[in-house]
Amino acid sequence: MLREFSSTGRDLFGGDADAEVRRQRNTVRTVALVQGDLLQNERSETAGLSARVIRGGVAGFASVADVSEESVKAVLDEAHKNALFLDGQVALGKPRLPAAPRGSFRMAREPGDPEQKKYVEFAREVDAYIVKNCPKLVSRRLRFRADCMEKVLTVSGGTDAHTYLPRCYLYLFFTANTPDGVPVDLYSVVGGYGSFDTLFRDPEAIFPEVDLLYGKLLAKTEGIRPEAGEKTCILGGSLTGMLAHEAVGHTVEADLVLGGSVAGRMLGRVVASPLVSLVDYAHAAFGKPAPLPVYVDDEGTPAVDAEIIRDGILVGYLNNRDTAVRFGMKPQGNARAYSFSDEPLIRMRNTAILPGSSRLSDMIASVEDGYYLTDTNNGQADTTGEFMFGVSMGYEIKNGKLGRALLDTTISGVAFEMLKTVDMVSDTVTWSSSGFCGKKQPMPVGLGGPELRCRLMMGGC
Amino acid sequence: MTSLKELAKICLEKLKAAGADTAQVSLSLSEKREFNIDGGEFSLFRTTFNRNLSLTAFRETRTGRVTLNSFDPDAIEDAVADCMRGVESDKPDPARGIAEKIGEREFKSGEPEPDAEKFFFRTRELKEAIEARFPSIIMEQMINSHNKTERVYADTNDNLYHSVSGCYEVSLMFSAHRDGKSSSFMGCGYDTVDLDTPLLEQGDIARVIGDVEKQIDTVPVTGSFTGTVVIAPDCLGEFLSDSVIGNFASGTSLIDGTSIWRDKLEKQVASENFTLSLSPRDPAILLGQEYTGDGYPAEDFTLIENGILKSFVAGIYVSNKAGCPRSKNTSTYSLVMPAGDKTLDELIAGIDDGLFVYRFSGGQPANNGDFSGVAKNSFRIRNGKIADAVSETMISGNLSEMLRHFEGASSERVNNGYFLLPFAAFSGVTVSGK
């Protein structure tokens, strides 16, 4: 557990600049089994101290791999020196940032960190079940990853914090051959926010997920290639989450708006069907804890929900303290850093399209000729909103009924055009939180959504 | 102060005392100096100092690994104990091993010592040159940094390697805008040690930025056709490293036997015109692999020669599991391809209908090599000439088949410090639009 600072931000910092100091420790445990062989069995820990000083609209940042109290002044001095250098060179002459509310936030306790052996034994038990019950697999891979970010933050103006963000996931990757001997694969993930001990008490609890994945993969080995072209589709919740994050969420990050994203000319305009609303949740959503709760960001801003699309109209961006001033908005706690040596960037937290009122069964029944796309393995989007997602599992829909499974395919479109075609939204939300968002630094994020009926470009195979 | 070499030896002794029969220790000290431009304005000057210690222990072919960024004696004691607990959690696997005794080696790569003020001058000059020469470009982000690293590797077979490396990294993300319309965003960059030449004149960035300015107005492809695609070096590098080598010639696909090249060693896997090397020690590669994770000094090798697969990318473990020879390095990014005998213009002149692709936004290719995705920042080729920029255009095919339909490489090659690649043409690719 990291020590808290012996001095508060106001004591540490001079009065002529905005500043923050952060102690941070990231831990990762990884176990990977390939065909029963342990390919990775590793624990890593990265800890250090950083400071950022903002002066005249530019930032100086410095970090060291040392969390001691003695290093605080040295790191602050280095950050201050860097800020002075850059301010002296570019002289943007921007005023100080408005003060954020003073406060303090501490999470209750450090999550547990069981030893490596527990992960390995758990994985081996699941692997043994797979060997016994999934005879048609040609390859099986299991991977545990448990990570935790602990941060201690003190700021010149804002909320000091001591927070933890622990996650633990078991990834199952299966490969089987089609009747022609062509390998096809599929994966699923179990886990979420919390530690191994709280999420993985009994290997038997994973067996139904194994059975489900195996069944889907076998259906996929008999799968068909979807027709290329624009089709009526039902986008599964995990794909809707991907859309919310990749194709909408990134375009409304205010730094990307300043960098020329399409959302820069869309604020206040219709960007989606009136059935579509989208929110970046801070720490709670739909009456439950959000998948990866964020309470205070790394600039000391208390985290609150950020409304992005309301009833089809673009109503907000995601900001840090600086961009909030530029756009006349309020910072809502989106400035996040991955490692002690990283500066805070504007990041999403838990981004989701809100549920509607339709039942999935009615949505499927309403499609005469189209596809139900359930799983994704990849997604990319442009600042124009143009997106491409890999679809790793799906089914054809013929005359309102699910048909054959699909082989791997891709879908593409332009988010703010495609979202206008949404005419049914299901009443349940599927969340995922096992991945990392990539934007200079990785970042754990949650993404989710309901099923959407819409028009999409299918890429074929 | 204890040197990295001395500390490595101390860690090895501690691992042996804790019960390891063989062990590896890697240590590093790193420094970064970085300038950021966001939304066209300087935003950040960042300096970071870090260190890393990695311990790998083996006992009766069981293994465990711990990494941390502390050299504190108590932290090292804890890490050694944790590492050995990892060993205890494993089962024996005789495929594991480390390099036999090779001895001591010294390495130096790139330019380890930065000139931060000159680098800032060159960075500001680059920003201003782009603003003046390419007025429609908005620089979403420019991240220019110098990274210096000192490393030591030591193992219980008396191998001891010391390296010092560093270079300047230039990385741009931008798009073009005019009259409320914009291009797709594009990223490009390079590694360099040259601060005497303006940054805009290095790598291929001037060409790329200039072409992105021509991508504001786009024309979608109607219907679909099968044609030839010319792939720009950055995109080619990703195709070859992540998709071709990743899917067919390295790692778990060899271990679990799902690679479709698993029995293709010394057999034809590509057009006889196609040759590709993995060359981390080539002078064009600034920070290439110096030694492998197993402890062998890295050497260059040819992966595919005149279409024949000459090697996999395999360390000791993959080699033993897959039953293939160990490769001379395990770097999958230090790609070097020979230049072709036609200029890029001549290459394009031979294409009736096709695409010139700068960026590919696609899903992970299937195990069998099937791929599909969006051709971004791309142009239609018609009647031997670059025509309109395209939008919402997908390309699909099979990686293995694509290599067999390699039509040639340009005589121009781009050296960005981590690869040396030409523009390359492949026929038989499906291009589809709305």
Please specify the SSE layout and strand pairing.
The complex is a heterodimer of chains A (about 450) and B (about 425).
Chain A: H1 9-12, E1 18-34, E2 37-55, E3 58-64, H2 70-90, E4 103-106, H3 116-133, E5 137-155, E6 159-177, E7 183-193, H4 196-199, H5 207-221, E8 229-235, H6 237-249, H7 254-258, E9 278-281, E10 284-285, E11 288-289, E12 306-310, E13 313-314, H8 321-327, E14 335-336, E15 345-346, E16 350-353, H9 360-365, E17 369-381, E18 386-398, E19 401-405, E20 409-414, H10 415-418, E21 424-425, E22 430-432, E23 436-439, E24 441-444, E25 446-449, E26 452-458
Parallel strand pairs in A: 4-6, 8-17, 16-25
Antiparallel strand pairs in A: 1-2, 1-5, 2-3, 5-6, 6-7, 8-26, 9-12, 9-16, 10-11, 12-13, 14-15, 17-18, 18-19, 18-20, 20-26, 21-26, 22-25, 23-24
Chain B: H1 4-17, E1 22-38, E2 41-59, E3 62-68, H2 73-89, E4 104-110, H3 116-133, E5 137-155, E6 160-178, E7 181-182, E8 186-192, H4 205-213, E9 224-231, H5 233-249, H6 252-255, E10 276-278, E11 301-305, E12 308-309, H7 316-322, E13 335-336, H8 344-349, E14 353-357, E15 359-362, E16 370-376, E17 379-382, E18 385-389, E19 394-398, H9 399-404, E20 406-415, E21 419-432
Parallel strand pairs in B: 4-6, 9-14, 13-21
Antiparallel strand pairs in B: 1-2, 1-5, 2-3, 5-6, 6-7, 6-8, 9-21, 10-11, 10-13, 11-12, 14-17, 15-16, 16-19, 17-18, 19-21, 20-21
What does this entry show, briefly?
The complex is a heterodimer of chains A (461) and B (434). Chain A is of the alpha+beta class and 461 residues long. Chain A has helices at residues 9-12, 70-90, 116-133, 196-199, 207-221, 237-249, 254-258, 321-327, 360-365, 415-418, and strands at 18-34, 37-55, 58-64, 103-106, 137-155, 159-177, 183-193, 229-235, 278-281, 284-285, 288-289, 306-310, 313-314, 335-336, 345-346, 350-353, 369-381, 386-398, 401-405, 409-414, 424-425, 430-432, 436-439, 441-444, 446-449, 452-458.
